[in-house]
Amino acid sequence: MTGAIVGATVHEGKAYVVTRGQKPPVLAEIDLSTRKVVRSVRLPDGPATGEPEGGWATAVSGGKIYVGTYPVPDLYRFDPATGEVAHLASFGKNGGYIWTLAAAPDGTLYAGTYPDGRVREYDPGTGAVRDFGVLAAGERYVRAVAADDVNVYAGLLDKGKLVAINRATGAVTELAQGATGIGVVAEHGDRVFATSGATLIDVRKDGTDDRRVPLGGSSFDALTVAADGTLYATSRPDGAVYRYRTGDSAPAKVAEPPSPDDETRRIALTGDGTLAGFSGSGGMWSLDLGTGQSQFTDLIEAGLPAGAERPQSMLLVPGRAVYVGGHFFMDVRDLRTGEQRRFRVPGEPKDLVRRGNKIYAAIYPSGNIISIDLRTDEVRSLGYLGQGQQRPWDLEYDPVRDKLLVASAPLGAELEGALSIVDPDTGRIDVYKGVIPGQSLMSLSLDARKGVVYLGGDVLGGGGTPPVHASASVAAFDLRSRTVLWQVDPVAGHRTFQDIKVHGGLLYGVYKRNSGAWIALDLATRTVKYQGTLSGYGELTTHRGRVFVSTFFGGGNAYELSDHTTHLATGLGDDWYTNPQLHFEPGSWKAWALSGRHLARIDLDPRCPLLTVTPPQA
């Protein structure tokens, strides 16, 4: 269950937040004085584009609240006076995002979109839409926009550019080039502020007087500017609050994190020296700028309708519990009592593994590796992967060397991922970046007896940078010498492994690109021995001497892989956020999985006929 949010904005003593992960998403109105949800509505399906799952983009114009959604890039309007919701426009097809919205002083709205990397103008009075075209060749993300009387200021994530678009002529001027993607933008007076990684860009609106302010290894994820030109910001990954004025050599910390290790979606000055903040985990806070004291409110407790989100990861502790990772929370189903509980974690657990009385999780978007005590639910951080490795994909435990192994990809326009070796007792992290040159890592599989970990690559890396290879590689890495033993490209033109698993002298691999292709690679000859096609990509697991896989698409399917494909189950649904997974109970063919967004225990005996699962109604 989740109360996570993406978009947030403030208007006349009320806050408006939009949920993420729920279908359909909730737009909730919160009274800032009582800190209670006073009204909520659901965003309906677009007439042609489909069902939204959240809305990153929010803005106020003419007393009305506007929301831009994903994974259908649609624009909606909520009228606080009448409570009515209207679908206004579509800016692309299913799979797209409206990442950001800003209102110019005259009320005209500007939207930044993905995957076409464009800015669009919407006139609330006439409904007219204007497209400003390609802003940079190959750009996919306009991640942030701000607007004044003359220009729209857009931050490009892939190309790291801050540009100004003349609202009258459409002319595009580059104001600054960041070292990495531009994630947030604000404007005031004659200056524009933007963040590029661990640097704050402070530049005049004509592109002159470009000042670069180091952020000490952190980044800013939300900005707002006071009437006197003071910039307030929240940092990531810790969530602290900072203040900056043009001419300062560095931002000054105003307060410790009101919501530690959280993502801040929006901050806004609400009067009387108070800063309001909205946290991605599903919270809001207020900060007294004079005293540095803050107050945090959980939005579910405040009355936000909770709903089921798409899970990130799962782990079975046999006879005890099933752990399911969501957005900033872990849900636990106690198998002994049937009870369910949840507790907070600092991000999205992309993968989970057990070691003794602890579970370890690899967290996005920080690259944090955390431990969770099975007895107390206590969460502790071992440390961060660093070196740009903020997207961990796979995690395994090496019982011979007593280490955690992490396969990761960079965040943003970089190619090279890393294998990280983590000591769970000391927190030491050894990062081997570029272990497959020019590729990120999507998966790993350990042969603990041989001391070799096998790695599955992805030529696209973090996205936004042209690949330097045409085919995804498999590499063997020796954990004793810490060196690569060999590397091979099993199938030409297949660019991304989703998962790999070593079993019986073969390396089984499922591709994401091309989706659903699978192989069994003979490790002795490094040649493909078997191959086939599944409904889509997913995660492999071994159980009782056999290899299984659960996949997306085609309604959600489970298979056994050998020298051929055996279809075991269908109808599981396509509601995983990351990889569809199966978790078998020891000594049986019962496996824990999803049925839609519900936890399910299914029988996958390979001797039985095809199982058709019917997800329960929500």
From TrEMBL:
Coiled-coil features, chain-numbered ranges: none
Ranges annotated as spanning the membrane: none
SUPFAM superfamilies the UniProt entry points to: Quinoprotein alcohol dehydrogenase-like, YVTN repeat-like/Quinoprotein amine dehydrogenase
Domain Pyrrolo-quinoline quinone repeat stretches: 52-245
PANTHER family: DIHYDRO-HEME D1 DEHYDROGENASE (PTHR47197:SF3), PROTEIN NIRF (PTHR47197)
Record's protein name: Pyrrolo-quinoline quinone repeat domain-containing protein
Source species: Nonomuraea monospora
